[in-house]
Design a protein that fits this description.
The structure is a homodimer. By secondary structure, chain A is α+β, with helices and mostly antiparallel strands. Chain A has helices at residues 2-10, 13-17, 23-26, 28-38, 64-67, 82-92, 107-114, 134-146, 199-207, 225-230, 238-241, 244-247, 277-280, 314-328, 340-350, 373-389, 402-413, 415-419, 439-450, 487-493, 496-503, 528-541, and strands at residues 98-100, 127-129, 151-154, 171-174, 181-185, 190-194, 248-254, 260-263, 289-296, 303-311, 332-339, 362-370, 395-398, 425-431, 462-470, 475-482.
């Protein structure tokens, strides 16, 4: 029980917000919930294709249609009229179910549905519908399909690539009113929930039963399970529990023509035909709307330990990772990478005492989660002794209590916020084969340095080029901290970074998806054959193209 | 190191053969390899839709086309002619690449490709092609597609549902000549192999590097990775490592028109479009031929422990399973269920000393695999003390050494073979929500008993109705041991069993797939909507229908 509460202390709401991708991604869904009524303290908007690290004064959000003048509204779609609105009022009962931008002054009400929490994308929707059941979603979608009304499914609206907000006048279909936990089998650990359930609420429900949701991410206080599955969210628990493609057991989906596809099995094994649900996992709402999710939940670990150590090269980081997998295997729950420059910046900004003496080119944070605190600590001690005696690791420390764990995690979690200290940050969230992972940072740094763009003085736009991320998932965050956004920097970065990734068969989107932002770049990660097949799948499930148009592929 | 070798002793080839589904499934691929040249000791053939448990004298295999007289050869397909054969000889170089049933007496050579190891299905192919590269497979398939020649992809031909042998004169495309390990990243644990690699060879390759293939099954000495993926094989390691849908990172697939779909990424995270590879996992070769597989491999456990215990009710079994997950969580690698009757039969046949005193209605076997033998044993001891003091478990024992482990496992592994002692066995491999799992056995037993079909004397066809299986995967083996196959028994069993499963939203095929055998029954596990969508997917990828016809859906 002591250990369980440590885990709780280790990830209080505020702490955990930043862990996945730093504050930019993570704090805002909650700020956004406030902002949607009071509109205070928005985040700093940022240059195309990147997110900025630190809050800044409020700013007008430009319409996406203005930011992308070459994109045009699809004229096949109908314009919303009063007859349509009346249909939805009749179907859904009006009131909270329908926000009618036609008949009432809805500017205050529609704003949170029209724009994303990064304040980067803004649509022109005049109608948000909030059906209260799968059946209502079915009828609503059928009507949209029959009447050529485009639809954007929206969960917690915490995405990072503009996938959950309209571009033009698409109707927003919010899943927030279908939010019941349908069933939980405490023996098998199988959970069935409505798509609109909030991740954190579900995880709390499971915690009371000794189970854990196999996904955790910073936006958990706002994001919905349906959206998590639709975007194939990765998050903090992937190293230990694997991806949603393995954990989701079944889905209930409403197809664009209103057909309800009931594949909501709770079986762990079911080899009867093509595994269609997989297409909707990461389908970003372009094939249908997920209304129910069945998922396998593991036991919650009773013990958590954290270690932090310094290494002299990326080769040694790889070596340490290999040793950690070998010696800690079944209890290893996080292996996070931070380069020396990122830690220098955190130190410069926070002025906190460093966990280890001296300067080192790399640092790693290891977390273990198991069923016996003493066993796990013993394994961690043995591991640290081994890697230090073998000179794989130069120095290391092991947290003795929850507050020390929290303090060690802050050196990883604090990076994104600190990077924003000087101004804007160019951020790339990519996946690269492990052996090449850090080379992208070195090559990018060399490229910007040789162009004279990096330096300690104000005439240099770039403060530092740093790398950190989820080593265990081959997921790198390449970040370029700047004093100001600068065209010269951007030209050096793109398409260089995408081409570099494509050459190593990496992914331009490790976990954030395509949405609107990365749609043009899919060719860097997928072949023409794959893209053609994807388009055929889209055509098959959504022949009229009403689902989340202008995005994805 | 001691523990590692224990694991080896625990699963020598002969022992592990039976574990997945007993000897019927498991020993034969190796016998078959012998039989293909010498034709000795075939298995007992069995009644439709079931496999028999024990070997019997050799018997002629009837043609599938004769067993299913209502099924007709699709007349859209071309008849093989000498021009076709010449094309393949030119393409593949003749010799081992082509077995030409037209120009040579090929009865001896074609037999192993025309029939399955259970000697249940037999086709009429006149041509087997064995391309040596993905490029050759691409050209061969394109030619077949252009010339309307039907194709059956064949790996190790160890399937259980007739999926890998032709029905009529389909060309067999064997993947056995593409069998290279393409790459292994010892840091990330990502392995890329040709589809034709044998599972056991790959696992041995990984063992030498401290890794493990996340799938293990009885036929490992013959089955190929491509076939494993195409059938979404479940096997022995699913409880611990999850399904292939979560572990496969990428695939290379040749589509029916010869297009090579290169999705052979080694990335753990890649959110760039629909996850198309998932359709081929469990697609049973009906959409294309898998030629390459990229998969994430976990560390090999250094310590293995086994416990065996008795329980007084299925409620207590569920309770024990829940406790095991809680207390052993990260080290739990098997939780196998055996009912008392199954253990009685094993005892009657083998006359071995039972592991525990007295008769109990249920027994369970627990295996743990971890990185520290002492820690794991301590956890197991604590677990056993707890469940015994709480009277969840009536009695239990913990293996002290490898030979004791092997002995305990034999009470689970020996079941299938012993069931065949009296004659034939009706076998169902199904998946049911855990709380209802054993009820199917009770209901089936009551049904057969009330019809007067079960008894100790020869006038009763049924010896016993038993249940056992992978508790951790909700995967039950319902077995009806008989003195003889009997129409009255069959009529009581079907469609009763399928209907019973359908009512509980279970699966009629937990891990064996559909193939030819279960094609008619998919409606018991899938809705019309799902089946319609599956047919559309098939039409999209294989518009001319040349891939593995007459099967699946």
């Amino acid at each position: 029980m002591i250990s369980r509460s440590c885990a709780g202390l280790l990830r209080p709401h505020k702490m955990s917000l930043g862990r996945a991708c730093g504050p930019a991604r993570c704090t805002v869904p909650n700020q956004w919930a406030r902002r949607s009524s009071a509109s205070t303290e928005p985040l700093q908007p940022d240059s195309e294709g990147r997110t900025a690290g630190a809050p800044s004064p409020q700013k007008h959000i430009p319409f996406t249609s203005e930011k992308y003048p070459n994109m045009k509204r699809d004229t096949r779609f109908s314009q919303l009229n009063s007859r349509h609105v009346q249909y939805f009022k009749d179907l859904l009962g009006g009131g909270s179910a329908v926000i009618d931008g036609v008949s009432v002054d809805a500017s205050a009400d529609l704003e949170p549905f029209n724009s994303d929490w990064m304040r980067k994308y803004k649509g022109h929707t005049k109608l948000v519908i909030k059906p209260a059941s799968t059946e209502e979603i079915s009828q609503a979608l059928k009507y949209c399909n029959d009447n050529m009304l485009a639809v954007v499914p929206q969960g917690g609206n915490t995405g990072l690539v503009g996938g959950s907000v309209p571009v033009y006048d698409e109707i927003v279909l919010s899943t927030s009113r279908i939010n019941t936990i349908r069933s939980f089998d405490p023996v098998a650990g199988t959970l069935v929930v409505d798509a609109g359930c909030i991740l954190e609420s579900v995880d709390q429900f499971l915690a009371d039963k000794g189970y854990i949701f196999p996904l955790d991410l910073g936006a958990k206080g706002s994001c919905q399970i349906g959206g998590n599955v639709a975007t194939n969210a990765g998050g903090l628990r992937l190293l230990r529990y694997g991806s949603l493609h393995g954990n989701v057991l079944g889905l209930e989906v409403v197809l664009p023509d209103g057909t309800i596809m009931d594949d909501l099995t709770t079986l762990r094994k079911n080899n009867t035909g093509y595994d269609l649900k997989q297409l909707f996992i990461g389908g970003e709402g372009t094939l249908g709307i997920i209304t129910g999710v069945s998922i396998l939940c593991p036991q919650r670990s009773q013990a958590v330990n954290v270690a932090f150590f310094a290494l002299e090269s990326f080769e040694k980081v790889q070596h340490a990772y290999r040793e950690a997998k070998q010696q800690l295997s079944e209890i290893l729950s996080a292996f996070e990478l931070m380069d020396g420059r990122s830690q220098d910046l955190v130190h410069n900004v926070t002025n906190k005492k460093r966990p280890l003496e001296g300067d080192h080119p790399f640092y790693c944070l290891i977390e273990t989660s198991g069923s016996n605190a003493e066993h796990d600590k013993e394994k961690l001690h043995q591991f640290l002794e081994h890697v230090m005696s073998e000179e794989i690791v130069s120095d290391g420390t092991l947290a003795d209590n929850a507050s020390q764990m929290q303090s060690l995690w802050s050196w990883r979690e604090g990076i994104t916020e600190c990077l924003g200290h000087w101004g804007g940050v160019y951020k790339y969230d990519v996946s690269i084969p492990l052996s090449d992972l850090y080379e992208l940072v070195e090559d990018t740094r060399a490229r910007l340095s040789s162009a004279g763009l990096v330096g300690d003085t104000n005439e240099h736009p770039v403060v530092a080029v740093v790398g950190y991320g989820h080593m265990g998932d081959s997921n790198l965050h390449l970040n370029v901290a700047t004093r100001r956004f600068d065209k010269a920097v951007e030209e050096k970065l793109e398409p260089f970074v995408y081409e570099w990734i494509a050459k190593r068969n990496g992914s331009i989107s490790a976990e954030h998806g395509l949405g609107l932002q990365k749609k043009p770049y899919i060719g860097y990660s997928r072949s023409e054959t794959m893209i053609r097949l994807m388009k055929q799948i889209k055509e098959l499930f959504d022949p009229r193209g009403i689902m989340n148009p202008y995005k994805y592929i």
